[in-house]
Amino acid sequence: MAQTTASAPTVRKQRLQGSEDAAELLSPQSDTLTARVYQKLRHALMTGALLPEQVLTVRGVAEEFGVSLTPVREAVQRLVVEHGLEVVNGRVIRVPRLDIETYREILKIRMELECLAAKEAAPRIANEEIERLDAVVQAHLAAIQAGDAHQTLVRNTDFHLSIYRASGQPILVRIIEGLWLRVGPTLNLLFPQYCGSLAGHETHLVAMDALRRRDGDALGQSMREDLVHGSRYLIRLLKP
Fold this sequence. Notes:
Blueprint: H1 8-18, H2 33-46, E1 55-56, H3 58-65, H4 69-81, E2 86-88, E3 92-94, H5 100-121, H6 127-146, H7 149-165, H8 170-183, H9 199-213, H10 216-238
Antiparallel strand pairs: 1-3, 2-3
Helix pairs in contact: 2-4, 2-8, 3-4, 5-8, 5-10, 6-7, 6-9, 9-10
């Protein structure tokens, strides 16, 4: 990808290790090994730590996470069902590459559902969470300015999904997370052109203002604009 010259396995190892602490942002902890491996892989997909068409091995993931093969196999099976991973020729585990039509369909659904979640979140989100998100926005800006693609995506994911979770609509949030699972690796294509433009940071500032005012309509509109800005770049890059 444009943001790194390292090989895919090296990138995967560095990013998976670097994102383990942040994995707790996205889902509750579980006491089972399978669930923990699942959450880590899920987080890696949602935040772009894994790249489109990147190949994984059960043994490689098991060694990285320090677990046996069985929980990795079970976690991979769950993610295949959720279309986060795919099995090629019955044995090769790979991160799917979205085609243009699938991306367009996901984008249309995200615009509706994420705007809805944001509107529901505005009157419910705690003041302490608004303060925390202000720090996330600043960390997002710092990552952009440092040219750190992965941390930019991690902070962006934290910002959006934290707002949606504050909606108090768990079924809606789960659907949204499933869409992020599928589109996360593709967001790597935003680098360096789009994310270097600060457009995403600016829409986050607008969202923060709406949050402080508890303005659900304005917050929903800022989420929509964020999606629209980024999609203009991705659609051009995804065209055959």
